[in-house]
Amino acid sequence: xxxxxxxxxxxxxxxxxxxxxxxxxxxxxxxxxxxxxxxxxxxxxxxxxxxxxxxxxxxxxxxxxxxxxxxxxxxxxxxxxxxxxxxxxxxxxxxxxxxxxxxxxxxxxxxxxxxxxxxxxxxxxxxxxxxxxxxxxxxxxxxxxxxxxxxxxxxxxxxxxxxxxxxxxxxxxx
Length: 174
Known about the structure:
By secondary structure, this protein is mostly beta strands. It has a domain at 22-133: Jelly Rolls (Sandwich), CATH 2.60.120. It is built from one helix and twelve strands; from the N terminus they run βαβββββββββββ. The protein has one helix spanning 47-50; strands at 40-45, 54-61, 72-73, 78-84, 86-91, 94-99, 103-106, 115-118, 124-131, 136-140, 145-150, 155-160. A hairpin with a 2-residue loop joins β5 and β6 (94-99).
């Protein structure tokens, strides 16, 4: 990061970050499947846009929705600071009620598995700060998927964990 960044939660524009290809994480609008994940996000700093070694975002989750599927990171630690609202944090030890003022620290392993769901009738707003290590693999235990995130700009692909291929499959050796 080359300069100090100051962003106020009340002034931050909440939208999909236009500098990243976040469509890989969004639902297909033509699909008949419904998803409980829905949120708005604004970037404070991110390595792809500011060169920072940290990532920081403001999230707003509408009532009854979740930020992401239940998952954990293998490379990045996360901290959430709840600014307003109330919700449920799903963890490997069970559900925890979280609300304004709570700070949540998650390790980069299966013990840090989490899913935040807004259980109130007002928006649930929080600040996320996390390390920006790439490549990153996020695992989703419920659906047995892996999300691989890597540079150079932004590469993110989701795979079913049981979709193995041979290490040399498709390789040509003359």
